[in-house]
Amino acid sequence: MIVLSELGTRLKEARIAKGYSLEDLQDLTKIQKRYLAGIEDGNHSMMPGAFYIRAFIRQYAAAVGLNGEELLEQHKLEMPADQPAAQPQMPNTFSSRSRSVTRTAPNEAYAEFIPKVLVALFIVLILAVAWYFYSASTNRDSTGTPVEEGNGVPYETPAPAVPEETEEPIEEEPADEPAAEPEEPEAVLTVEGTQGETTTYSWQGPAERELEITASGPSWIAATDENQQELTSEARVMQAEETEKIDLSEVESVRLRIGDYSNITLTLNGEPIEYSQNIQPQNIVIQFRNAE
């Protein structure tokens, strides 16, 4: 627990002087109420790290009319030192692995035997098909040629002459061409503008939309819809090689809060979203319109 009594008191007094409640400040800064209360009380144990503590304090100060940089400089001795992210503990799987090897040993012998059986069955099947066609051909030849009695010499019965009839060609009606399948509407992502830390995009495309968030390093990430409802499993710090997919088919807009944009890749329906601002943290807002 980090106690910043003087800094938290100054921010709380400025908020009260503005007439804001914690709920009002949450709507202004998009910072969760529990984090705002933690800043005022000096309790930052629930926050993701020192970087985000400073970022939240700057946003809090700006919302109540104070200079966040000056406050941080005045109280720099009270700020927590940066700490490296904890490495995930590798699970101990050696004992279970050895047990699984013991259980699967009979299956390995069985797996080696199966291909030999399949090859033998395949050869038998080929021989059976060849014998079937050979027998059918032999029976057809023996039944199609009559044999004279006595000497067993086959002869061919002459067919009666039949006057040739000229057949009129039958005109084939042109087949109906299959109806062309409707083309899937093309997706278009346009930058509408930027304001401060926020970049607004307009999306026009299919009604089925999926956003994929991929982390190449640690970064804070949170996603909410137009009603401020969280869309991610939880607002948190994503680690390297972590991916989360969000179905956006039923929402009108999405707002992303990104701590370190250089460690976060965003793709919408497989198309990458390019960042228009090189700042951190920053907000990405996407407004959706279905293609006609």
Please describe what this structure looks like:
It is a single chain. This protein has 292 residues and is α+β, with helices and mostly antiparallel strands. A hairpin with a 2-residue loop joins strand 8 (264-268) and strand 9 (271-272). The chain has helices spanning 5-18, 22-29, 33-41, 50-63, 68-74, 94-144, and strands spanning 188-195, 198-205, 210-215, 219-225, 236-238, 243-247, 253-258, 264-268, 271-272, 282-290. The chain starts with a helix and ends with a strand. A 6-stranded mixed β-sheet has the order 1-2-10-7-4-5, with no helix packed on it. A 4-stranded antiparallel β-sheet has the order 6-3-8-9, with no helix packed on it. Among the domains are: 5-78, lambda repressor-like DNA-binding domains (434 Repressor (Amino-terminal Domain)), CATH 1.10.260.40; 188-290, no CATH class. The model is unreliable at 83-106 and 145-155 (pLDDT under 50).
List keywords for this structure.
membrane; 35% helix; transmembrane; alpha+beta; RodZ-like_C; 292 residues; DUF4115 domain-containing protein; Cro/C1-type_HTH; six-stranded mixed β-sheet
N- and C-termini, Cα separation: 54 Å
- Low-confidence segments, ≥5 residues, pLDDT <50? 83-106, 145-155
Instruction: Give the CA-based shape.
Output: elongated
Order of helices and strands: HHHHHHEEEEEEEEEE
With strands numbered from the N-terminus, the spatial order across the biggest sheet is 1-2-10-7-4-5
